[in-house]
Amino acid sequence: MSVDVVIGVDAGGTSTRCAVVALDGRVLGRGRAGGANQYSSSDPGEAFRAALGEALAEAGDVAVVRAVFGVAGAAASGHARAVATVRGAWSGLGLPGDPVVNDDIAVAFAAGSPEPAGLVLIAGTGAVAARVCDGEVLRRCDGYGWLLGDEGSAVWIGLAGLRAALAAIDGRGPATVLRDRLAHALGVPPGDPQAVIRAVHDRPPAELGRLAPEVMHAARAGDAAAAGIAEDAARRLLTNLASVAPATRPAGQAAEPAAEPVVLAGAVLAGGPVADAVRAGVRRRFGATPVSATDGALGAAGLALRQAGVPAAVHAALLTRAASAVTAADGPDPTRPADPAGAP
User: Fold this and answer.
1) At a CB cut-off of 8 Å and minimum separation 6, what does 34 contact?
2) For position 335, what pLDDT does the model report?
3) What sign for the dihedral angle of Cα 284, 285, 290, 296?
4) How far apart are CA 288 and CA 257, in angstroms?
5) Which of 62, 67, 122, 326 is the most buried (most CB within 10 A)?
């Protein structure tokens, strides 16, 4: 006998995750594939098919009641394209009905809080801040992609590190361990700017986010250039969050406790110098203790559960179990490549 389920999918620039969840909150199947950002990923449709297929195969005999996809690059300008890609993958697997397709911002918030409204700050492959209510983004700041924005994201940090390394090579900037660390990460000889340039241009922009952990390692070790990049990233992220938040008190005055949750998502905010500075800034400026998002696919599944009429307590229990599992595994690894989406 089949089990009624919802499906949640979180698709970013680096990876696509899928969760099949029973209506009582049990996770029956999971799947993962490559990135499905509508602007920067090579084959979003194949990523959706692979992640869905893997999760459904693990779940077994199920009947899909509702599905929610959070897709990087599926904001207003990219929504029609994202819907077409998702529906093509969905129907190709013989699944019934039409899934709900949104960008991944509301999904990230729902991966950290079962509350209907609040703030979310994402810094993974891309970066964006938003105010969310009832599964919809009311206001957002940045998330403009690596070329025009995504300030404080893993790609932004990687690019800032490369600029510092090149400046150290040609004498425009101070010496930094990034000169050698990033060359080794790219697989090129240290001190050769042309080799660095070729290596960077041979890679899709999203892959440059994989250099961010090297910059963060250097910052923790006391490298001045890397530490400056981390400080600048945190400052920009907090500025973006403030732009979407309700009015806060002037600088120097203690903030009142926030009435709504503040969710932090993305590998950059999972741990390390940027995450520490952002958490301190949220407490200081917004009077809130930020909470960390769990797997975005579970956030999408939580939204699907609520849209299917399942009580919010099931969504809350789903997040609690996920957070406990992360704690038991010693927490997320901030040195891994930026993964959750949050911007085109």
Assistant:
1) 14, 15, 16, 41, 42, 43, 46, 47, 50
2) 36
3) negative
4) 6
5) 122
Strands 3-11 and 15-22: antiparallel
Distance from C-alpha of 187 to C-alpha of 145, rounded to nearest angstrom: 26
What is the three-state SS of 62-119?
EEEEEEEEEECCCCHHHHHHHHHHHHHHHHHCCCCCCCEEECHHHHHHHCCCCCCEEE
Chain-centre distance for alpha carbon 274: 15
The answer to whether residues 58 and 41 touch, using CB atoms and an 8 Å cutoff, is no
First to last CA, the chain: 41
DSSP 275-325: HHHHHHHHHHHHS---EE---HHHHHHHHHHHHTT--HHHHHHHHHHHHHH
CB distance 130 to 119 below 8 Å? yes
Give me 23's structure tokens.
């209506």
- Cα separation, 200 vs 202, in Å, equals 5
pLDDT, tens digit (0-9, with 9 covering 90-100), for 131-189? 998 888 899 999 888 889 999 999 999 999 999 999 999 999 999 999 999 999 999 99
Residue 258, CA atoms < 13 Å, CB-side half-sphere: 22
Among 214, 169, 213, smallest CA distance to 191 is for 169
Please give the structure tokens belonging to residue 211.
């250099």
Which tokens sit at 179?
Answer: 């000169």
- Domains of the chain in start order, with CATH, are 3-115+294-328 (3.30.420.40)
DSSP state for residue 252 in the 8-state scheme: T
Please say whether the dihedral angle defined by the alpha carbons of residues 232, 238, 241 and 245, taken in this order, is positive or negative.
negative
**Per residue in 317-339, pLDDT tens?**
989 888 877 654 444 444 343 34
